[in-house]
Model the fold of this input.
Amino acid sequence: MTDSVKESFSLKKGRMFTIFVVIVLFAIGTYQTLSGSKGVVTAQVDAEHLGVCGTYGDAVFVKLTDIKDILLTDSFDFGTSIADASTGNTVSGLYSCTAYGQYTVHAYTDVSSFIVVSHSDGILVFNCATDSLTENIYDQLLQTVG
Done:
């Protein structure tokens, strides 16, 4: 096998693993929500994609090459809900605010930091279960996107 074939296989394997992890975590989060537990937001970065999903709403996969800007902020004004679903601790859906216009969100409401990703298809706002985990994903994005 040539090096390019090995690299291509490795990237496909990594992408499939990321998709598998996001689907499993989404299923666990859905089960927890339906059984009365709190919601879950999951974010994963691999060599080619950022994947984010919440307990409700569609998972969002963004090619790293399509990312235009990444911002880590300590607060975020959600603005107006267009179509959303929420649990006791999470919100997912489509929102609109003055700063960004229409955007997709998957976020914990009890975590203060948020990552705002501007990409070719729009804006994605998300965070992880803690500020520390959110900062770790932000750092991964900076390292892989540049």
Notes: The helical segments are 3-34, 131-145. Strands lie at 41-45, 49-54, 60-63, 67-73, 80-86, 90-97, 101-108, 114-119, 122-126. The first strand starts at residue 41 and ends at 45. The longest helix spans residues 3-34.
